[in-house]
Write a structure and sequence with these properties.
single chain; 14 helices; two-stranded antiparallel ribbon; mainly alpha; 72% helix; 1% strand
Length: 370
Amino acid sequence: MNPLLLLVARHVQRFLRTIDLALLVPLVGLMIFGLVTLFSAGDHSTRMVISQGSRFVIGLGLMWIFSRMTPPFLRSIAPYLYVLTLLPLVAVLLIGQGRHGNLWINLGVFYFQPSELIKLSLPLMLAWCLHDAVLPPRLRTVLTAGVVVGLPVGLILLQPDFGTAMLITASAVFTLFLAGLPWWWFGAAVGGVAVSAPIAWMFFLRSYQKDRILNFLHPEMDKLGSGWNITQSKIAIGSGGWTGKGWGQGSQSHLDYLPEHTTDFLFSVLSEEFGWIGVALAFTLYLLVIARCLWIAVEARDTFSRLLAGTFGLSMFVYVMVNGGMIAGMLPVVGVPMPLLSYGGTSAVVLLTGMGMVMSVHAHSQTRIR
């Protein structure tokens, strides 16, 4: 081989040695699939595709940077990242914007959603709390974890953003589950939610949130009003059939029947245009990502690394299931995007950064990186 090419190959290999290809390949596949579907759903808008693509590039850059960080270093900065991500949650309550509350901060160039950052810092913080604790966690450790989770969840509920608060709580539950928390704790938590549900309905839920729950229970109640979104989504999914109508041929999105067709309901567009085959391909890519994260967690050398990789993998599973169940009418509409498919910068960048942390766990469980 040419000595120059050999030298370049060695430098590239050293540059990318912390990147796990088994995780990167399905992630890139999802990003490409998302951009292709977004181009169709956005009425062939190159601006939207370039905007989302640039966010993917930023996310991939951060993924590489965090993959180079050792798990001990990530553990050392976990409390600082947690505190730093709480500050924007306070700021968004004062200067935030949104259709149903204060969800985003307008930075001029783009809209920034502070609650997305908690999806990154909370698993880190919980893994930090549990790393040196006796496992399965004792009562004191569980209460400490409850405070760590309760602060950001409470601030997010004040926005209000019930969907994100639910996902963040789920990630915390996964961390405690992986730490070996006994099953009866989860049963008690479910019982507590069931008891508090009527109180939340009467005093805390807003009218549009109640409408979403009622439409989930009785979708035929107001098909032309509050039930319009889910009705059109089901039509889009059902009309796709096995092979779909073809790329760019989805009538529900292009005729503006399907709302939010570039964000929350983008997967409905994918289902209509690519059919069952496209849906199966997307779910296969998600399954590969989740399985790889869990495999890396199994091979991790310490508690912090195991909890971190496992939580990110199981959190991805919840994001996919919640959005998929939402667009299919199996869950209430809560405004949760489909990871790496739906249009949205903050969520994509945060998710890819989290995958970089998972890659760090894998790289440093195999060898020491200077």
